[in-house]
Specification:
Layout lengths: L13 H22 L3 H29 L4 H23 L5 H36 L6 H10 L1
Length: 152
Amino acid sequence: MAIEWTSDLHTGIEVIDDQHKRIVDYINQLENAIRQTDSRSVGLVLDALADYCLAHFGFEESLQEKAGYALAKPHKVIHETFAKRLARYREKHNAGEDVAQQLHDMLKTWLMHHIKRDDMAYVSVVKGGIDRMSRDKNDGDWLSRSVKGYFN
């Protein structure tokens, strides 16, 4: 069953919500590949999802650090643990093991719990950090500075 984006997943940080929606799209693409029993498509979605998650995690961690979120390091550990788990699924898939449904189920469960529990915990601190960065107009808008800082 496809994941639907619902209001309880909104962090209120537009750039993060957009990234989360993109992850939901990848999970739904994985579901379509499973329905079509298309192992090649499963692999392509899995590769794209893994790459996107790493970029998203890095960006999210950067915002947490800039905002002074006290639990930024433990949050990063959660991301690292998930990335390792996803890498194991990729290895199994690449070895010819059919892990697609198990992977899909794990992704749906993990993402919903992660957003609702772990991500919602940092929202007020990061929003405050965004507000502070927004007031500092010396070097462009807060998002441009954050992206520039993350990718440089």
